Amino acid sequence: MEKKTVNVSSGAGKVEELEKENAAAAAANGTPAKKTAHKSVKTTKSTAKKNPSVHSKAKAAEKKEEKAAERRLGAAKAKAEKKEKKLLKKAELKQKKLEKKMALKEKKLQKKEAIAQKKQDRKQAKIDHAAALKEKRVERKAERIARREMLRNESKAERHARIAREKKERIALKRQRALAREKEREQRIKARAAAQERRSEERKHKREQKTERKKHAPGFGGWLAAVISLGVACLALASVVTAGAFRMNDMTLETANGYRSTLYELTAASEDMDGNLGKLRVSSGANEQRMLLTEILVDAEQMESALERMPIDNVTGTDISSFVNKTGSYCRDLLSKIDRGQALTQTERNTVEYLYNINAGLYRELNEMTTQMTEKDLMAFIGGNEGTLSQKFGEMGQSTLQQPEDTVDAPFSGEGNVGQNRIAAQEEISESRAEELVKEYLQGYHLAETQFTGETLAHDVTCYNFTLTDESGNEIFAQITKNGGKLAFFDTYEECTEKNFDLDTCDGLAREFLAQLGIGDVTAVWLSDGGMVADITYATVKDGVRVYPDLIRVRVCESRGRVVGMDAMGYLLNHDPDRSFGSAMSREEAQKKLSAGLTPYAAHLALIPLNGEEVLAHEFACTYGEEEYVVYLAAETGEELAVYRVQNSARGSYLR
Length: 656
Fold this sequence. Notes:
Low-confidence stretches: 1-10, 33-42, 239-251
Helix content: 55-70%
Largest sheet: 13 strands, mixed
């Protein structure tokens, strides 16, 4: 057999392989294997001894082969691990998909069950509602039958008592409803403020996030790639949207100009109304008043027209429109009165003053808005977003809800001097004497300190002013007339949070206080208990006639049962113990003169102030449906002289 040449540089591995090949060949030929490898090794060794560089190359080749084997093994292991991870990840994804599918299936099942439950609940609610309505109908029918039976058998006295009781119940119900409406309005205001604050916080948070994003902006490469992508998309859409964008900009500009013009129109109308109301409150001539009232009506119509074209929310628009409409309606009534030849009363002038003050504030806000408004504010307002303009309109809407500070708490209150001034003829007193008198009048208030603060002229009466302090530190303001030394007015603040005394008890306490001042023969003509303070207005009575020029207002704290205020200026100015009254038609004849639909439940003879004179009249307290009115008819002719409407609010009852 031919010997194979052994490559010495292949190392020990090749030697071993060569020996195996020789052994296999010998076995095939039946001859013993030759030890070629050993010879080769010896030859190699001998060669290596003769040539050391050959031995070094063999060792280096051997090491290189070992490292290559290690790398192949590592690569095989890494490949196996990668494959295993891939299979594991695939299994996890499959498991997640399965779980998501099961969760979705469970959610759909729950939704289906919830829908079925809602349907069942609605069906049951309809059944319950129908049953409740049926039960209420049965109850109402039974109540009607019982009421008809009761009305059929009640006596005249019982009927009067029932009517009075039902009237009180209606008044109480109206007051509760008014209180509920007021609370609801307060809740809306609070909710609106909270929403505005929340939106402000959200905008602030967005600005902070935007600033933070700018601080951590991506690198130039990512930014460049994003810009290129966006540019490609914009170029694809540019040809489509460019023309539409121009048209949209033109429409937006036209809309903004329209709303700006409407806002200027609203401001101009309010400015004109401000001037006319300011003139009306000091005017005394019928012709001038007629012209001013006509111009105010035109201003009101212009303001209402402008408000209808402004993008204001319903609540704010309703509040401002309500004020404008009430102003126009009231001026129309005054215009009709002047056309009948009648003069404006002090109460009507007070209302004109109230309208002037509200509109003056409205005009100031509108003028400030138009001068400081920016294009950004206007666009936000047009878009219905919260901003300066919407906030200003909301504040203006709230300001128009303000009630008149001088509400009429009794018929003909605030009329002042009628005829002769009864105080002017009395003897003047000194400041020291006035101080002694105020201490005597208020001796039950345990005064600790008294301080004179000057003089005041009001209603043609000069008064000494005093600030007093009781032992608890509460301040009391009091006025003593310079002529006669009478207690004309006093007021103190006490916290009244509980209703420990009813109106009847408070009436008795007020009468005792007036008796200590030498004032008697009075009757309560108006009672109100808003805010845990009983507000009672008295008029003197002579020969069965209520004398309204002699009005006295007393306030009693229902928590402590103590008088906390009094205004007797009308009584001091007008009280005449020697009054006499003219003739009058009978009450029955006067009642026939009442307007159709009015049902009187109380009637009195009354002396009322009218155009600076005292006039005898029949006073009728009437109902008209659910509303209440007080009507005054001339005692001799039955001509209608004055009409008041009773208003109920959370603060008590007052007249309009």
